[in-house]
Amino acid sequence: MSTHYDRLPTLKERVLGGKLVAVGVVQSIKPLPKSRIGEIDDEQAIAQIKLEKTLRGTSSQREINVRFVASRGDNDRPSPAFVEGQRLVLMAVPDVGVEVRSNTFVAYLGSAFQLSPNGSFTVESQSDSPKNDRVKT
User: Contact 116/131 with Cβ under 8 angstroms?
Assistant: First the structure.
């Protein structure tokens, strides 16, 4: 069973909810063994991210691991997509999953956004009229 929310969080809510807010570059992607949560098969992976700048919180190292769902059996909700070489801004919380590696995080409510060449990113928002919030880091 998936958790559903009435609305997407605002950028402010994502920043306040994330224990670590940082800009970084994805160095590598490593698949994890397939897992099953309830009736849903998840293929998870670890993105190793080299931090360029920490905007909120602290990390004990210049590189962090971010566990994410690489594909879901139900495709019910989008997961952040990580690609080697991708520069992004990440709002993350410490991972509390089974067999957690040290210095591993997860994107807070999917808050990992690719940065454009000029350093901006788009946050999908939900309201009566569809719009996106563009932010410059």
Answer: no
Taking the C-alpha atoms of residue 30 and residue 69, their distance in angstroms, rounded to an integer, is 12
pLDDT in the model for residue 131: 45
Contact at 8 Å (CB) between 49 and 64?
Answer: yes
pLDDT at 129 > cutoff 60 = no
How far apart CA 70 and CA 137 sit, in angstroms, is 26
Report the largest interatomic distance among the alpha carbons of the chain, rounded to a whole angstrom. 42
With contact defined as beta carbons under 8 Å apart, do 26 and 63 qualify? no
Give the pair of three-digit tokens for residue 46: 């670890």
Average pLDDT over residues 13-37: 88
Instruction: Report the residue count for the chain.
Output: 137
Is 37 within 8 Å of 76 (Cβ atoms)? no
Q: Identify whether the C-beta of residue 66 lies closer than 8 Å to the C-beta of residue 104.
A: yes
Closest CA to 32 of 21, 41, 19: 41
Please state, in angstroms and as integers, the Cα–Cα distance from residue 122 to each residue in 43, 112, 119, following that order. 26, 10, 11
Nearest Cα residue to 107 out of 133, 83, 81: 81
| Among 80, 27, 81, CA closest to 52 | 27
